[in-house]
Write a structure and sequence with these properties.
The C terminus is likely disordered. The termini are far apart. Helix 12 links the parallel strand 15 and strand 16. The chain has two domains: about 230 residues, 3-Layer(aba) Sandwich (Rossmann fold); about 110 residues, 3-Layer(aba) Sandwich (Rossmann fold), CATH 3.40.50. It is elongated. The chain is of the alpha/beta class.
């Protein structure tokens, strides 16, 4: 049997004695990242608070390094587990440095007097998450993103073995999301920190997680690796997606396609067509796309947004019959948008399609990446 550093056994969580989720069974090796995903209200925060001891367990046990958390003293547990939840920290008249320093209280004793070792831990943590330059700023007067990083620094200077994070990227822009998660990943690799967190961003969850727990209903639906969880069609069902689409294979999310007969034919490929597909969707304009290989970067968006996609099997010549199908669609469309300035060796069918549109007298709009429309 695999020796898990962190695991739960028949964990049941809820409020006021009423179970919300029952029999949660998860296991993590030291240094792994577990991400909880699921619809709003599925119980992600409840599970995290229960693991952290902020909610009483209704059943089951949480083990850390083979020991039940209930067997650990009030002094021991804070040295091994740090918690960053979504509730606002009350820190009136405290500087950022003072907030981070509260992470050392498990070590400072009842009077909270920092030693030189404690001050060094605070300084190193603030430098690590790049908030040392705001150490003297009022914690209540910094941005949400800065606040989240300060709270992470507080958790780090606690020198825990496991950290619990509830939606840690919620207030961060894309730059700080990536920096934040990169930092977590680096700490897991170098310091063997174990992380249990919730995320709304499925694409980020797929990239950073070693294990994913899916929550919906009375029982946890799935627990496994990202490759196991991001199976075709599963997450759309987990989140009850009824408008638009989510492609588990590549994290591609699109709004609903415009309905009707295609009025525009888009010639693209290699990822250059996605912006045009989305522009046409915003305009409510049904369109056709092709000829696209099924492994093309444009294919997932085209499949989700186009009224018709002329698609070819990857790594094989485009059949003559498929070219004729595309030409018939060109005949039916009043306008052609071409996103390609040049065509590669395996794109000669699209070059032929563009030449056919020109010979047919079609209105052709060139939308090469980085340039505006031109005819």
């Amino acid at each position: 049997m695999t020796e898990y550093y962190f695991r739960t056994e028949k964990l049941t969580v809820g409020y006021n004695g009423a179970p919300l989720i029952e029999d949660i069974e998860i296991g993590l090796k030291k240094g792994e990242i577990l991400t909880l995903i699921g619809p709003n209200g599925a119980g992600k925060s409840t599970v995290l608070k229960s693991i952290a001891g902020q909610l009483a367990l209704l059943g089951g046990t949480v083990f850390l390094d083979g020991r039940s958390l209930t067997d650990m003293s009030r002094n021991e547990l804070p040295k091994r587990m740090a918690i960053v939840l979504t509730e606002r920290l009350r820190a009136e008249r405290m500087s950022c440095g003072e907030v981070v320093a509260t992470g050392r209280y498990p070590y400072t004793g009842r009077f909270g007097v920092l030693t030189e070792k404690d001050r060094l831990a605070v300084e190193e943590a603030m430098k690590l998450v790049q908030v040392d330059m705001i150490r003297d700023r009022d914690f209540t007067r910094i941005s949400d993103g800065q606040r989240q990083r300060v709270l992470l620094a507080r958790a780090i200077c606690q020198e825990p073995e496991i950290v619990i994070l509830d939606e840690p990227t919620s207030y961060l822009d894309i730059r700080y999301k990536l920096e934040f998660l990169s930092l977590l990943q680096e700490m897991c690799r170098k310091k063997k920190l174990t992380v249990v967190m919730s995320l709304h961003e499925l694409d980020l969850a797929a990239r950073i997680s070693d294990r994913i727990l899916c929550l919906r209903g009375r029982y946890a639906e799935r627990f496994g690796t990202p490759e196991e969880i991001f199976a075709p069609g599963y997450l759309s069902g987990l989140f009850s997606v009824t408008a638009g689409s989510f492609d588990e294979a590549n994290g591609n999310t699109e709004l609903p396609a415009a309905r009707g007969e295609p009025a525009v034919f888009v010639i693209a490929g290699g990822g250059c067509g996605r912006a045009v597909y989305r522009m046409l969707q915003r305009q409510g304009m049904p369109f056709a796309a092709g000829i696209l290989y099924r492994n093309d970067l444009d294919y997932p968006s085209a499949k989700a947004l186009a009224a018709k996609v002329v698609e070819a099997r990857a790594f094989e010549p485009v059949p003559a019959g498929l070219c004729e199908e595309a030409k018939k669609l060109v005949d039916r469309c009043g306008r052609i948008i071409c996103c390609r300035e040049t065509f590669g060796t395996f794109e000669q069918a699209n070059r032929e399609l563009l030449d056919y549109a020109r010979r047919s007298g079609k209105e052709i709009e060139m939308r090469v990446s980085g340039s505006g429309p031109a005819t």
